[in-house]
Amino acid sequence: MRFLVTGGAGFLGTALANRLARSGHEVQVLDDLSRGNQEGLDTAVQCTQGDVDNIPLLWSLLRGVDCVYHLAARVSVAESILHPREYSRVNVGGTVSLMEAMRDTGVRRVVLASSGAVYGRQPQQPVHEDDHPQPDSPYAVSKWAAEQYVHTIGQLWGIETVALRIFNAYGPGQQLPASHAPVVPRFLRQAISGGSVVLFGGGQQTRDFVYVTDVVEALVSAATAGHINRQIINIGRGVEISIAALVDEIETVTGHKLHRIHNPEKSGGVPRLVADISRAKILLGFRPLVGLAEGLERMLREDGRFS
Ligand code: NAD
Prior knowledge:
single chain, alpha/beta, seven-stranded parallel β-sheet, two-stranded parallel sheet, 39% helix, globular, binds nicotinamide-adenine-dinucleotide
Protein backbone atom coordinates (compact mmCIF):
# COMPACT_ATOMS: atom_id res chain seq x y z
CA MET A 1 0.00 0.00 0.00
CA ARG A 2 0.97 3.63 -0.38
CA PHE A 3 0.85 5.78 2.77
CA LEU A 4 1.33 9.42 3.68
CA VAL A 5 2.23 10.02 7.33
CA THR A 6 1.83 13.66 8.40
CA GLY A 7 4.01 14.44 11.41
CA GLY A 8 5.99 11.37 10.40
CA ALA A 9 9.31 12.74 11.65
CA GLY A 10 7.98 12.90 15.22
CA PHE A 11 8.06 10.29 17.97
CA LEU A 12 5.08 8.13 16.97
CA GLY A 13 5.29 9.04 13.27
CA THR A 14 8.87 7.81 12.91
CA ALA A 15 8.09 4.48 14.56
CA LEU A 16 5.00 4.09 12.36
CA ALA A 17 6.68 5.11 9.08
CA ASN A 18 9.61 2.74 9.66
CA ARG A 19 7.28 -0.12 10.63
CA LEU A 20 5.27 0.36 7.41
CA ALA A 21 8.35 0.69 5.20
CA ARG A 22 9.90 -2.45 6.72
CA SER A 23 6.71 -4.35 5.85
CA GLY A 24 7.21 -3.41 2.19
CA HIS A 25 4.82 -0.47 1.92
CA GLU A 26 5.60 2.78 0.16
CA VAL A 27 5.78 5.54 2.74
CA GLN A 28 6.00 9.30 2.45
CA VAL A 29 6.27 11.68 5.36
CA LEU A 30 5.18 15.32 5.56
CA ASP A 31 6.59 17.19 8.55
CA ASP A 32 7.52 20.82 9.14
CA LEU A 33 10.32 19.59 11.44
CA SER A 34 9.23 22.08 14.11
CA ARG A 35 9.70 19.29 16.64
CA GLY A 36 10.59 16.10 14.81
CA ASN A 37 13.70 15.33 12.80
CA GLN A 38 14.49 13.09 9.87
CA GLU A 39 17.41 11.24 11.40
CA GLY A 40 15.34 8.39 12.81
CA LEU A 41 13.63 7.62 9.50
CA ASP A 42 14.72 4.66 7.37
CA THR A 43 16.19 5.59 4.00
CA ALA A 44 13.22 3.90 2.31
CA VAL A 45 10.93 6.57 3.78
CA GLN A 46 10.66 9.77 1.73
CA CYS A 47 10.45 12.87 3.90
CA THR A 48 9.22 16.24 2.67
CA GLN A 49 9.58 19.28 4.89
CA GLY A 50 6.44 21.40 4.82
CA ASP A 51 3.35 22.57 6.66
CA VAL A 52 0.24 20.39 6.85
CA ASP A 53 -1.72 23.52 6.00
CA ASN A 54 -0.07 23.81 2.55
CA ILE A 55 -2.78 22.54 0.17
CA PRO A 56 -0.74 22.59 -3.10
CA LEU A 57 1.98 20.58 -1.37
CA LEU A 58 -0.64 18.16 -0.05
CA TRP A 59 -2.07 17.71 -3.57
CA SER A 60 1.32 16.59 -4.87
CA LEU A 61 2.02 14.26 -1.93
CA LEU A 62 -1.45 12.67 -1.89
CA ARG A 63 -1.42 11.48 -5.49
CA GLY A 64 -1.85 7.68 -5.55
CA VAL A 65 -1.98 7.38 -1.73
CA ASP A 66 -4.24 4.62 -0.31
CA CYS A 67 -4.35 5.81 3.28
CA VAL A 68 -3.23 8.88 5.24
CA TYR A 69 -2.07 8.78 8.84
CA HIS A 70 -2.63 12.23 10.27
CA LEU A 71 -0.24 12.75 13.18
CA ALA A 72 1.05 16.27 12.51
CA ALA A 73 0.09 18.44 15.45
CA ARG A 74 1.31 20.71 18.17
CA VAL A 75 1.34 18.38 21.17
CA SER A 76 1.98 20.23 24.43
CA VAL A 77 -0.95 20.87 26.78
CA ALA A 78 0.98 23.58 28.65
CA GLU A 79 2.09 25.33 25.47
CA SER A 80 -1.47 25.24 24.14
CA ILE A 81 -2.61 27.30 27.12
CA LEU A 82 -0.07 29.98 26.16
CA HIS A 83 -0.63 29.80 22.38
CA PRO A 84 -4.19 28.59 21.72
CA ARG A 85 -4.37 30.26 18.28
CA GLU A 86 -1.37 28.31 17.01
CA TYR A 87 -2.94 25.06 18.31
CA SER A 88 -6.15 25.88 16.53
CA ARG A 89 -4.29 26.79 13.31
CA VAL A 90 -2.24 23.58 13.12
CA ASN A 91 -4.39 20.96 14.84
CA VAL A 92 -7.77 22.10 13.55
CA GLY A 93 -6.97 24.18 10.43
CA GLY A 94 -4.29 21.73 9.27
CA THR A 95 -6.73 18.84 9.64
CA VAL A 96 -9.41 20.62 7.58
CA SER A 97 -6.83 21.45 4.89
CA LEU A 98 -5.79 17.81 4.76
CA MET A 99 -9.42 16.66 4.36
CA GLU A 100 -9.95 19.16 1.53
CA ALA A 101 -6.82 17.99 -0.25
CA MET A 102 -7.88 14.35 0.23
CA ARG A 103 -11.23 15.13 -1.38
CA ASP A 104 -9.49 16.86 -4.29
CA THR A 105 -7.11 13.94 -4.90
CA GLY A 106 -9.58 11.10 -4.24
CA VAL A 107 -7.79 9.52 -1.25
CA ARG A 108 -10.20 7.14 0.46
CA ARG A 109 -9.07 6.66 4.05
CA VAL A 110 -7.57 8.63 6.94
CA VAL A 111 -6.51 7.52 10.41
CA LEU A 112 -6.39 10.45 12.85
CA ALA A 113 -4.13 10.38 15.91
CA SER A 114 -6.43 11.87 18.53
CA SER A 115 -5.82 11.89 22.27
CA GLY A 116 -7.12 10.60 25.58
CA ALA A 117 -6.77 14.23 26.70
CA VAL A 118 -10.13 14.84 25.00
CA TYR A 119 -11.88 13.19 27.97
CA GLY A 120 -10.64 15.62 30.62
CA ARG A 121 -12.04 15.00 34.09
CA GLN A 122 -14.53 12.13 34.05
CA PRO A 123 -16.71 10.87 36.92
CA GLN A 124 -15.94 7.24 36.08
CA GLN A 125 -12.85 5.31 35.07
CA PRO A 126 -11.89 3.61 32.83
CA VAL A 127 -13.13 6.06 30.22
CA HIS A 128 -15.23 4.75 27.36
CA GLU A 129 -15.56 6.24 23.87
CA ASP A 130 -19.23 7.12 24.55
CA ASP A 131 -18.36 9.25 27.61
CA HIS A 132 -18.94 12.92 26.93
CA PRO A 133 -15.61 14.77 26.48
CA GLN A 134 -14.73 17.48 28.99
CA PRO A 135 -11.63 18.99 27.38
CA ASP A 136 -9.72 21.24 29.77
CA SER A 137 -7.03 22.71 27.50
CA PRO A 138 -6.83 24.21 23.99
CA TYR A 139 -4.84 21.11 22.99
CA ALA A 140 -7.68 18.80 24.07
CA VAL A 141 -10.28 21.03 22.38
CA SER A 142 -8.23 21.02 19.16
CA LYS A 143 -8.06 17.22 19.12
CA TRP A 144 -11.79 16.89 19.73
CA ALA A 145 -12.50 19.43 16.98
CA ALA A 146 -10.17 17.56 14.62
CA GLU A 147 -12.13 14.33 15.28
CA GLN A 148 -15.42 16.08 14.51
CA TYR A 149 -14.08 17.65 11.30
CA VAL A 150 -12.54 14.42 10.06
CA HIS A 151 -15.70 12.40 10.65
CA THR A 152 -18.10 15.05 9.36
CA ILE A 153 -16.14 15.96 6.22
CA GLY A 154 -15.43 12.27 5.61
CA GLN A 155 -19.13 11.47 5.71
CA LEU A 156 -19.98 14.33 3.35
CA TRP A 157 -17.34 13.40 0.78
CA GLY A 158 -17.23 9.62 1.13
CA ILE A 159 -13.83 9.34 2.81
CA GLU A 160 -13.40 6.54 5.37
CA THR A 161 -12.27 7.98 8.70
CA VAL A 162 -11.24 6.64 12.08
CA ALA A 163 -9.88 8.46 15.14
CA LEU A 164 -7.64 6.69 17.63
CA ARG A 165 -7.61 8.33 21.05
CA ILE A 166 -4.08 7.56 22.17
CA PHE A 167 -3.34 7.73 25.91
CA ASN A 168 0.15 8.27 27.40
CA ALA A 169 2.47 6.79 24.79
CA TYR A 170 6.14 6.41 25.68
CA GLY A 171 9.23 4.80 24.19
CA PRO A 172 12.60 5.35 22.54
CA GLY A 173 12.91 8.51 20.48
CA GLN A 174 10.25 10.38 22.45
CA GLN A 175 10.79 14.12 22.27
CA LEU A 176 12.44 15.72 25.31
CA PRO A 177 11.97 19.49 24.86
CA ALA A 178 13.56 21.83 27.38
CA SER A 179 10.22 22.70 28.93
CA HIS A 180 7.06 20.63 29.41
CA ALA A 181 8.70 17.34 28.40
CA PRO A 182 6.49 14.22 28.71
CA VAL A 183 6.68 12.55 32.09
CA VAL A 184 8.35 9.22 31.24
CA PRO A 185 11.49 10.45 29.42
CA ARG A 186 11.72 13.40 31.81
CA PHE A 187 11.73 11.19 34.91
CA LEU A 188 14.12 8.70 33.27
CA ARG A 189 16.58 11.47 32.47
CA GLN A 190 16.33 12.76 36.03
CA ALA A 191 16.95 9.28 37.45
CA ILE A 192 20.02 8.72 35.27
CA SER A 193 21.49 12.13 36.08
CA GLY A 194 20.79 11.90 39.82
CA GLY A 195 18.14 14.62 39.66
CA SER A 196 14.84 15.20 41.40
CA VAL A 197 11.16 15.06 40.45
CA VAL A 198 8.25 17.16 41.65
CA LEU A 199 5.18 15.17 42.69
CA PHE A 200 1.94 17.12 42.86
CA GLY A 201 -0.57 16.07 45.51
CA GLY A 202 1.53 13.06 46.53
CA GLY A 203 1.81 11.73 42.96
CA GLN A 204 -1.58 10.06 43.27
CA GLN A 205 -2.78 11.13 39.79
CA THR A 206 -3.13 8.13 37.53
CA ARG A 207 -2.44 7.66 33.82
CA ASP A 208 -2.51 4.88 31.24
CA PHE A 209 1.03 4.34 29.86
CA VAL A 210 1.16 2.53 26.54
CA TYR A 211 4.35 1.50 24.78
CA VAL A 212 5.13 2.90 21.33
CA THR A 213 5.17 -0.47 19.51
CA ASP A 214 1.69 -1.27 20.82
CA VAL A 215 0.40 2.10 19.58
CA VAL A 216 2.02 1.48 16.19
CA GLU A 217 0.35 -1.93 15.85
CA ALA A 218 -3.03 -0.31 16.55
CA LEU A 219 -2.34 2.31 13.87
CA VAL A 220 -1.28 -0.36 11.38
CA SER A 221 -4.51 -2.33 11.97
CA ALA A 222 -6.60 0.83 11.56
CA ALA A 223 -5.46 1.24 7.94
CA THR A 224 -7.18 -1.94 6.78
CA ALA A 225 -9.68 -3.05 9.46
CA GLY A 226 -13.31 -3.29 8.32
CA HIS A 227 -16.33 -1.82 10.14
CA ILE A 228 -14.42 1.08 11.71
CA ASN A 229 -15.67 3.90 9.54
CA ARG A 230 -16.50 6.98 11.66
CA GLN A 231 -15.35 5.23 14.84
CA ILE A 232 -13.49 6.66 17.80
CA ILE A 233 -11.24 4.06 19.44
CA ASN A 234 -9.25 4.29 22.69
CA ILE A 235 -5.64 3.11 22.52
CA GLY A 236 -4.07 2.61 25.94
CA ARG A 237 -2.93 -0.39 27.90
CA GLY A 238 -6.03 -0.29 30.06
CA VAL A 239 -3.91 -0.30 33.24
CA GLU A 240 -4.12 2.57 35.73
CA ILE A 241 -0.74 3.62 37.13
CA SER A 242 -0.12 6.45 39.58
CA ILE A 243 2.72 8.91 39.01
CA ALA A 244 4.23 7.79 42.35
CA ALA A 245 4.15 4.17 41.13
CA LEU A 246 5.81 5.26 37.88
CA VAL A 247 8.62 6.80 39.93
CA ASP A 248 8.97 3.53 41.90
CA GLU A 249 9.22 1.56 38.66
CA ILE A 250 11.79 3.95 37.18
CA GLU A 251 13.90 3.61 40.32
CA THR A 252 13.75 -0.19 40.06
CA VAL A 253 14.58 -0.29 36.35
CA THR A 254 17.42 2.27 36.48
CA GLY A 255 18.76 1.27 39.90
CA HIS A 256 18.87 4.99 40.82
CA LYS A 257 16.91 6.69 43.60
CA LEU A 258 15.02 9.81 42.59
CA HIS A 259 14.80 12.71 45.01
CA ARG A 260 11.05 13.37 45.37
CA ILE A 261 9.94 16.94 45.99
CA HIS A 262 6.36 16.97 47.24
CA ASN A 263 4.15 19.84 46.13
CA PRO A 264 0.87 19.67 48.08
CA GLU A 265 -0.99 21.48 45.28
CA LYS A 266 -3.30 19.30 43.27
CA SER A 267 -2.20 20.58 39.85
CA GLY A 268 -0.64 18.26 37.29
CA GLY A 269 -3.73 17.55 35.23
CA VAL A 270 -6.83 15.45 35.78
CA PRO A 271 -6.75 13.19 38.86
CA ARG A 272 -7.37 9.93 36.96
CA LEU A 273 -7.28 8.82 33.33
CA VAL A 274 -7.30 5.23 32.13
CA ALA A 275 -8.72 3.78 28.93
CA ASP A 276 -11.40 1.18 28.43
CA ILE A 277 -9.84 -0.65 25.47
CA SER A 278 -12.58 -3.16 24.76
CA ARG A 279 -13.59 -1.43 21.51
CA ALA A 280 -9.97 -1.55 20.25
CA LYS A 281 -9.84 -5.26 21.09
CA ILE A 282 -13.00 -5.98 19.13
CA LEU A 283 -12.52 -3.69 16.13
CA LEU A 284 -8.73 -3.74 15.71
CA GLY A 285 -7.79 -7.03 17.38
CA PHE A 286 -5.68 -4.81 19.66
CA ARG A 287 -3.60 -6.62 22.31
CA PRO A 288 -1.09 -4.41 24.12
CA LEU A 289 1.95 -6.61 24.76
CA VAL A 290 4.46 -4.43 26.59
CA GLY A 291 4.07 -3.78 30.33
CA LEU A 292 5.54 -0.74 32.08
CA ALA A 293 8.70 -2.42 33.46
CA GLU A 294 9.55 -3.99 30.12
CA GLY A 295 8.81 -0.76 28.24
CA LEU A 296 11.09 1.26 30.54
CA GLU A 297 13.86 -1.35 30.17
CA ARG A 298 13.56 -1.22 26.39
CA MET A 299 13.71 2.56 26.47
CA LEU A 300 16.90 2.44 28.51
CA ARG A 301 18.44 -0.14 26.18
CA GLU A 302 17.39 1.34 22.85
CA ASP A 303 17.55 5.09 23.43
CA GLY A 304 21.14 6.38 23.59
CA ARG A 305 20.08 9.42 25.62
CA PHE A 306 19.52 7.23 28.68
CA SER A 307 22.68 5.11 28.64
P1 NAD B 1 5.67 14.74 18.08
O1 NAD B 1 5.71 16.18 18.46
O2 NAD B 1 6.89 13.94 18.27
O3 NAD B 1 5.16 14.60 16.57
C1 NAD B 1 4.37 15.56 15.92
C2 NAD B 1 5.08 15.92 14.62
O4 NAD B 1 4.27 16.86 13.91
C3 NAD B 1 6.44 16.58 14.85
O5 NAD B 1 7.43 15.88 14.11
C4 NAD B 1 6.27 18.00 14.33
O6 NAD B 1 7.46 18.51 13.73
C5 NAD B 1 5.12 17.82 13.33
N1 NAD B 1 4.37 19.04 13.09
C6 NAD B 1 3.94 19.94 13.99
N2 NAD B 1 3.29 20.95 13.39
C7 NAD B 1 3.29 20.67 12.06
C8 NAD B 1 2.80 21.33 10.90
N3 NAD B 1 2.16 22.51 10.99
N4 NAD B 1 2.98 20.76 9.69
C9 NAD B 1 3.65 19.59 9.58
N5 NAD B 1 4.16 18.92 10.63
C10 NAD B 1 3.98 19.45 11.85
O7 NAD B 1 4.44 14.10 18.89
P2 NAD B 1 3.99 12.57 18.99
O8 NAD B 1 4.02 12.22 20.43
O9 NAD B 1 4.68 11.73 18.00
O10 NAD B 1 2.45 12.72 18.57
C11 NAD B 1 1.98 12.37 17.28
C12 NAD B 1 0.48 12.53 17.24
O11 NAD B 1 -0.12 11.67 18.20
C13 NAD B 1 -0.01 13.94 17.56
O12 NAD B 1 -1.11 14.23 16.74
C14 NAD B 1 -0.45 13.84 19.01
O13 NAD B 1 -1.46 14.77 19.30
C15 NAD B 1 -0.97 12.41 19.06
N6 NAD B 1 -0.91 11.85 20.41
C16 NAD B 1 0.31 11.53 20.97
C17 NAD B 1 0.32 11.00 22.26
C18 NAD B 1 1.61 10.61 22.96
O14 NAD B 1 1.54 10.18 24.12
N7 NAD B 1 2.76 10.69 22.32
C19 NAD B 1 -0.87 10.83 22.98
C20 NAD B 1 -2.07 11.21 22.36
C21 NAD B 1 -2.08 11.69 21.07
